[in-house]
Specification:
32% of the residues lie in helices and 23% in strands. The chain is an alpha/beta fold and 486 residues long. Strands 7, 8, 9, 12, 13, 14, 15, 16, 17 and 19 form a ten-stranded mixed beta sheet that branches. The structure holds NADPH dihydro-nicotinamide-adenine-dinucleotide phosphate and the ligand O=C1O[C@H](COP(=O)(O)O)[C@@H](O)[C@H](O)[C@H]1O. The site of NADPH dihydro-nicotinamide-adenine-dinucleotide phosphate (NDP) has 26 residues, from helix 2, helix 6 and helix 9.
């Protein structure tokens, strides 16, 4: 591994010492794309508006297939900043000084030209399709980067375990692991990180978060959004790769990991890695323990949606799923025998974005107390940000009749939107909120048996009308405790 590549371009090479408050350049590859406009630039706007990152220069780049210039780019940045009210002096300065450079990032000469334009410490954000990211990284490995450069790479990282390993290998040739930020914006969501506070800053939950007390854990991300014009990316990915392989496995890891001694990157990522290494498809049977489906025409959240297969840019023969479910086992002392049921789908009846820990029934409800129907549940909501507990109490009325009540705490969104948080991590050189190289490979290892079973046609592609609750035989509907290892 080296940080002194053979041909690092001149101006960026005279770097200040690490840790200083220094001028930095954020080079945004894929700046003309959807991610940059909707999520990344707004996150950046909020971050710079807090006063962090003084002296930041932003350079946006696109492939040059469309007509972009400095003026159009500045408008794009200003519009994105305006969506989050980022209009303070720092944000205004970033808008004033930002520039656009078009470049085919798979070509060495274009990359050299791009790098020559950068000053101070360099952060490169790859907001690019995965195949282009891989080719750009290979080209950068050949030409080299200035020491201290940090790379931010979007998910999905690679397109399968083999390509992820190969991309990790390429990156390791020219950037140390701690300077590689594999982005998972769920790790920047305040409620996701609050899983740590909830679990490890309280005495009452941790002792019961294990197989003695937990019947099952569900991680659910149901959206009402449909394809939203993202055919080019989504039709090659599908719900399992888009959401489960990355975001939902990260949430699973935070819920299932043991307490890290500190929250620094080495401890936190080490704990998550341990859990994911022990995770696999329930009973090693992806045919039995996965579901896939895609939406047909319907109405979701008051919007009429065409069938996924009829959306422009979709190849229906690829059989891309818009809803994926999988049941996983975490083979550790703590979790052996507890099913982790993961599900994400688009164009569903309502938003449901939460992790739910369902507890086992109490050993015995005393004779005389009636009306026990539901086990207690701990719910961690990601949108809206909310923490709640379903508990059985002797409710009003008959004092011996049980009622289930929900004790809830709502909190507003974090100080920064998720992309603001992950950008802050990269600017400050803290990879705690990014995914380590071995973990991303393990995440592919976990989902690959399912992808293979689907490719082989062993799991039928079901259909559900947009605006419905998804297929009727959901793996999440059996009562907790019904899923048993044989
Ligand atoms: N959009 C989203 O909501 C999310 C996206 N992501 C991830 O972010 C990444 C980007 O997604 P998204 O923005 O939606 O994709 P888009 O298709 O909207 O944008 C792709 C970008 O890549 C650029 N690009 C493509 N080929 C080249 C090339 N050879 N040289 C230089 N630039 C190139 C395009 O430039 P041009 O337009 O100029 O051709 C464009 O700016 C993907 O990995 C995706 O998985 C992750 C989370 C959410
Ligand atoms: O990464 C992605 O996440 C979004 C959902 O996350 P949110 O923070 O925008 O709610 C999902 O819609 C998208 O398909 C996926 O690529």
């Amino acid at each position: 591994m080296t940080t002194s590549p053979p041909s690092a371009p001149g101006p960026v090479a005279d770097l200040p010492a690490a840790g200083d408050r220094v001028s930095q350049t954020l080079l945004l590859l894929g700046g003309t794309g959807d991610l940059a406009a909707r999520l990344l630039l707004p996150g950046l706007g909020r971050l710079v508006d807090t006063g962090a990152q003084p002296g930041l220069t932003l350079i946006g780049s696109g492939s040059g297939t469309e007509d972009w210039d400095d003026e159009r780019w500045r408008r794009r940045v200003a519009d994105a900043f305006a969506t989050v009210g980022a209009d303070g002096p720092r944000a205004t300065e970033v808008v004033r000084t930002t520039r656009y450079v078009s470049a085919d990032v798979t070509r060495e000469e274009d990359l050299r030209r791009l790098l020559t334009d950068c000053r101070g410490r360099l952060v490169i954000f790859f907001a690019l399709p995965p195949m282009i990211t891989a080719r750009a990284a290979a080209a950068l490995a050949r030409i080299g980067l200035p020491p201290g450069t940090r790379l931010m790479l979007e998910k999905p990282f690679g397109t399968n375990a083999v390509s992820a390993r190969s991309l990790n290998g390429i990156l390791a040739r020219f950037v140390p692991e701690d300077q590689v930020h594999r982005i998972d914006h769920f790790l920047g969501k305040s409620t996701v990180m609050n899983i740590l506070g909830l679990r490890f800053a309280n005495r009452i939950f941790e002792p019961v978060l294990n197989s003695a007390h937990v019947a099952c854990v569900d991680v659910v991300f149901d959206e009402t959004l449909g394809l939203e014009g993202r055919a080019g990316y989504y039709d090659g990915a599908g719900a399992l790769v888009d959401m489960v392989q990355s975001h939902l496995l990260q949430v699973l890891a935070l819920i299932a990991m043991d307490a890290p001694p500190t929250l620094d990157a080495r401890d936190l990522r080490g704990r998550k890695a341990q859990v994911l290494r022990a995770t696999r498809v329930w009973d090693d049977d992806p045919v039995r323990w996965s579901r896939r489906a895609r939406y047909t025409a319907g109405e979701a959240a008051g919007r009429r949606l065409p069938a996924y297969a009829d959306e422009p840019g979709i190849d229906p023969n690829r059989e891309t799923e818009t809803l994926a479910e999988v049941v996983l086992a975490v083979d550790t002392w703590r979790w052996a025998g507890v099913p982790f049921r993961l599900r994400s789908g688009k164009a569903l009846a309502g938003k449901r974005e939460e992790a739910v820990v369902t507890f086992k029934q109490p050993p015995r409800v005393p004779t005389g107390l009636t009306g026990y129907e539901q086990p207690d549940r701990l719910r961690i909501g990601f949108g809206p940000d909310r923490l709640s507990l379903d508990v059985n109490i002797n409710g009003p009325g008959n004092p011996l009749e049980l009622d289930q009540v929900n004790l809830a705490a709502d909190f507003g969104p974090g100080e920064l939107p998720p992309y603001g948080e992950v950008l802050r991590g990269a600017f400050e050189g803290d990879p705690a909120l990014s995914v380590r190289g071995d973990t991303v490979e393990d995440s592919w290892r976990i989902v690959e048996p399912v992808l293979e079973a689907w490719r082989a046609g062993a799991v039928p592609l079901q259909e559900y009308p947009a605006g419905s609750h998804g297929p009727g035989d959901s793996l999440l509907t059996p009562a907790p405790g019904e899923l048993r290892r044989h």
